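#structure-requests
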Amino acid sequence: MESATAEKKLFNFLRTLGIQTETYQHAPVFTVEEAKTHRKAFGDKMAGGHAKSLFIRDKKKQRALVMVDENRRVDLKALAGKVGLGRVSFGSENSLKTMLGVIPGSVTPFALVNAQVNGDEKPPLIIAIDEKLMAADKLWFHPLHNAATTAIFANDLLRFINACGYSPIIINLD
């Protein structure tokens, strides 16, 4: 589902919400370290909070999408408790594609555009955001693929998530 059409759908949805973004194209990145290396070419243009997004599940197949500051080490056991799950592991590539329409290396809260729910449905995912990440004014995520990075203001991210039918929780991982 990583395509120009999917990206266009995302940006059109954001525009309907009155949310402005800025996007920078770069070589595909698969790790935080690769992203940091490519980001150097943009200088201060990409200042703000950069995230790593985790797609996790517990044994009961409850799933969560969690965004944390890119420099944070994550203790999965502690994280599970913070989001209300049992013992967690990373979700499979298949369930990631099925639920969010993205592949590993492209996990992003923007993928919720592919998993919208209406008010009557129970959301299939818990959405959690690191309090430290939310302290940044501007946040950066992949726009459904890992060959670009898109900025969104923190309050607009919350509006986007709510518009997709989810109620995000802000978690303190300290």
